[in-house]
Write a structure and sequence with these properties.
585 residues; single chain; globular; 40 strands; 4-stranded antiparallel beta sheet; mainly beta
Amino acid sequence: MTSKESGRPAVVRHKAARRITACTALAISAGMLLAVPAQADDLPVPREPAPRTAPTVDSMPKSPIRQSGAAKGPSAASAGAEDTKPALPRSDIDGDGFSDLLHRAIDGQYWVTPTGSEDTYIYALGTSDETFKDVFSIAGMDTAEPTRPTHFTLSADGRLSSYRSHETSAELQWSGTGWQQFNKVFSPGDLTGDGAGDVLARNFAGELFLYRAQPGAAEPFAPKVKVGSGWGQFDQLVGVNDANGDGIADLFARNPAGELFFYAGTKGEQPFKPRVKVSDGWAEYNQLFSVDDVNRDGFADLMARNVSGTLDRYLSTGTGSFQAKVQLGTGWHPVSQFAGSGSNPFWGKNEVLGVDKSGTTYWYHGMNNGLLSAREHGSTGWQGAKLSLASSFDNNGFGDLLDVMDGTLYNYDDYVGDGEIGSGWGIYNALVGPGDLSGDGKGDLIARDSAGVLYLYRGNGNGSAFAARQKIGTGWGQFTALAGAGDIDGDGRADIVARAKDGSLHLYAGTGVATAPFKAKKLIGTGWNQFNRFVAPGDLTGDGRADLLVRNADGVLYRYDADGKGGFKAKAKIGTGWNTYNGLH
């Protein structure tokens, strides 16, 4: 089916992937994790684009989080102490006295893994099709039931919302805006000794702020207080509740080199004592998180997942160190974000679109383990289309498919308007949607014309329109490839990479300022002319950093993982046969 006016494939709306039930949905299975080389079909008759869906997750791994044989009751550390009360479990969703694991799957659905059980069930968090950027839980906010968790969700546009927890769902209580000023918002537990969990927030300059909890008040937190600087050195900040048995929340922090440090809580004006190095070797994990005290010894413990999907448990010794790790299970890669995870949350795109020589499209989805799902047939009739797959312009967290036809720009993922953005877009030879470049939390678009002038188009938050263009640079005609979808250098801002004609690759780090959205270019490598296609798929490894895919003339596809320092790790081969595609986006 084609549009009578333009001859382009008709615009089709679809719900966010986590709400779709379709026979084309992909199941998570070992046989579907490797990227499958595409095969071109016979020339098809153009027809309406099929809705794409993220891989559905029918069930999550069944691994008991709690230490086997653990006894319930008063914590060993606090028993007999007159002034020390055990820290309340931050996420006791089922009411058994232990915190439970809340996590988001690839399709955007939330799940709960109860700490004392191998059962895992779907949890209704929110009522819309929005995919939240991050989630964490706090105890002590409900004055009537202090042990009942309050869940907080962070939206991409900077809206923080609180939800009263029930066993299988949660109800909205409060929302506040402006939180996009931070690249990390989380709760380590009670830092002030009043029994209620507090919030820490780190801005892009590396400054750390404390938001003290106000249980029962209209506003859940008191105004922010700066409590430190230099925290931008860490790529993981993990609140664990109480790891040393004094009733005050503690914090672990990891840097990109894999060094882990312990910050003991003080209950004072400065919330933490000087850091103590725990050990090296933690770089293997893409997410660190805590489910509080899993063996009821009075000391909160740490969980760690690596890129292969293996989940390890580290039991605390009570001194800021750990016993030897215990492997809990494998197959945890379908989890895109653990609640309370220490990583900067990734949001906006996790897909690759291939267009073969017949004009048929195929979709691939990142699996958080560095691999792509088996391809999903999209639609036909896209010969000669000028497509771009941008980081999400709305709140569903999935990429927006753009098409320029006869100079008119269309957004196939515009659910609010009619899909037609406007005319005059034929002057551009490159369109890139790397995410939020202006600091307002809304996805933006950059466009380059034939004279090498670069323009910024600020998004409106729903993908139906852009603000008037702003000229942001000249001389961009020197580059033969531009790509970006998310944060490459680890500061939480959207970045892009650009390949020059001589094969050198440069990073343009985001600033969050619309008038000058990029820092000066930084050389990060040479020899990149060996590749004929650059693709920004988002985060493929589950660590919150944006990765890069490149294809060579032989059709071999390689992945370059962002190292968190503004460069990439050594390339990893993930598939062959990719030269069947004329276009990769």
